[in-house]
Inverse folding.
């Protein structure tokens, strides 16, 4: 997935009412516009059912929020990687705080993703799980302290945690991009994350639930490359 | 969901390689054609990521293979009912043999579906679980003996099981449509199911993996209303 | 399990620090004493690891808090029914609010329990899930509104809910004993439950975390048979 | 847990009918005897319900097959660490192939175990998951190729896999003891594992289902320290 050039802003649309269907499409178009205007890499993660709608309408990368590890076959109700790819997604979140996975399944998902040239951003919750994720060789690891998710208090208010997490990821596997998330709501949070060594941020409510999503994303995008 | 008039044929596309994306769209169009030609009710259940593509292209009802019970909010990677509906689905399979759910979650899904005028076909695996499902008041209950799923040996080879299941469902809740599935591959299997009292059949490989899906579906549709 | 004569008081020891090991043994001995003094049926449900210790020391019935559905074989870390029985338990809670199970697994557990003459008390959370449980033919169904569990506000403050639940269980399967739980903390709660038609109560903190467990249990036992 | 001196033989009793209750006690006594005779470290992992019975009767270390991550409190049917400890266990298997856990839960279990001076042997299935486990800082990591578990074909038939796994664990965290398992059935399998650098072996059927458990264990113990 060499076309994804860090630093990134990854926008998780979650199951928020503000991001369903056409509302999500509008948000994705805003992200597309801001990415072009600022020449930054912004990734959107709509719900599975909205991936194709959005992937057909924007030029920025579209990620799934989750894919299952199984191969094609007799499985019902799973998110099959190959189907997600055909619909236009080029990567996925894995092991999000709201969708924790078994260690062995994370490894299988990463492995299958690699074989399909599909980008993986695996979420973690602290230093040790970030190191463990790095050992699994995903493309990126996004560390999010669970207690700050959706809180509006940025992960960057814990600079030591961020720095140590990044250092430990680098020690285990310097090819893994270190990202951070949780509570990221302002341009300054993004600037701070980059200053601490992160190669990008993962956020959801700070964009999706913002009254001025375009303005806030623009600030973040500018902070990303300042 | 009074627009769904039994008897039904429900086609589960599963995660089969033969049913992904445009291949699934072709299968759905075949189902659409057969439904029109035979004036029968045929329902297709594509993967979540393909729901919108197919719902926009056919007139027959499109179901999800699974929805999660949660309401809109801070959830990642779940199939939100409201998003599935906006994408064009009008119902869902619940508790498929390959996606078993907790009892309390099945009840919540049915409850939320009812409030959204969304059709639920809850799968069960024997007489007792069928009775339990009936008590939860879904629109339909599809009993599938797990050992016959994908076997090519039709559930109707167990006529006593089918008849007793239907009788027990009726005793608990006569409003629940009794369906059967597993191994249904031929028109005669459908005819036999209807004769035994089922209001429809649920099948997957018998259609999706058939070399002549149109021919086999046509036979089934004709058998459904004979 | 015809030796269990209703009405019952079932005491769930949970994972409370007050009920571990020797502390749990003391609580079980109190229950044993009260049962004898009042000539009532009181059942204790210690943690799995404490079942043998307690079953060897008291005459009252000892239940597990959970058993797994699997048969003996290559399974690791599961609660095997046969091992639980050899340790002295004569029954189990199933599908407790804090240990919800898949519908099909509940059915398998009940089936395996019946074949081993092992008593099953399956928990439910509302009227519909209680009906579903009754259809699965356990020995008893204990309805507990989740929002009242551990609240100190008794389920009997919802008399209509209790009466309707019992009536519906009876309709589906009159052989299933209807029990209620959640917030039961006083003798009067038990008296009220019995008056509403319940054949017993399920409680945890009201006994385990009480400062005077013997006194409170004595009151409850007397209320049970008044 | 500095009293556990490698190399080890860890005997997983699983849910085998041959290891329940008094049968498990006999097997544990055999292990106890062999450990004394050969002056080796042999650990037994009975079912949770049998931990106290066995821990009271033998001098060798007793491990649980699984503990849950939760702290003491309102949890039902879980294996609470503190209760397992009070019953006499000094360690636990974690994430066994037949009881896979979420990455974040493995980390929490290890963390809670450390705070309670409780030994953790975390299972893994390949090189990458072994590295990930090492990053979580358990006491030991037992790599078991799933396809060989219970097969009678020893993991040591894949010497390169064993050596590379050990090397990678050492790179991430040299304090983690590297163990191997799957198909270990003979003294020579143990000798080979030690020769390849493993600090011990994890086995189940090779001992529990053996017709001559004492003889086979004696051979293994001798091979361990040869």
């Amino acid at each position: 997935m060499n076309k994804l050039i860090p630093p990134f802003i990854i926008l998780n649309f979650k199951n928020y009412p503000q991001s369903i269907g056409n509302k999500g499409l509008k948000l994705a178009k805003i992200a597309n516009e801001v990415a072009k205007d600022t020449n930054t890499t912004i990734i959107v993660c709509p719900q599975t059912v909205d991936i194709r709608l959005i992937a057909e309408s924007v030029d920025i990368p579209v990620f799934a929020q989750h894919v299952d590890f199984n191969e094609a076959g007799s499985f019902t109700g799973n998110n099959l990687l190959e189907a997600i790819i055909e619909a236009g997604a080029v990567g996925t979140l894995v092991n999000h705080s709201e969708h924790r996975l078994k260690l062995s399944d994370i490894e299988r998902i990463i492995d299958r993703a690699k074989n399909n040239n599909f980008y993986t951003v695996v979420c973690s919750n602290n230093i040790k799980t970030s190191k463990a994720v790095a050992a699994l060789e995903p493309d990126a690891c996004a560390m999010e302290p669970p207690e700050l998710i959706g809180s509006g208090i940025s992960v960057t208010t814990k600079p030591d945690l961020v720095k140590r997490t990044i250092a430990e990821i680098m020690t285990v596997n310097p090819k893994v991009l270190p990202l951070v998330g949780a509570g990221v709501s302002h341009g300054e949070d993004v600037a701070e994350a980059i200053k601490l060594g992160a190669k990008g941020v993962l956020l959801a409510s700070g964009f999706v639930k913002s009254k001025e999503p375009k303005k806030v994303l623009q600030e973040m995008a500018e902070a990303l490359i300042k």
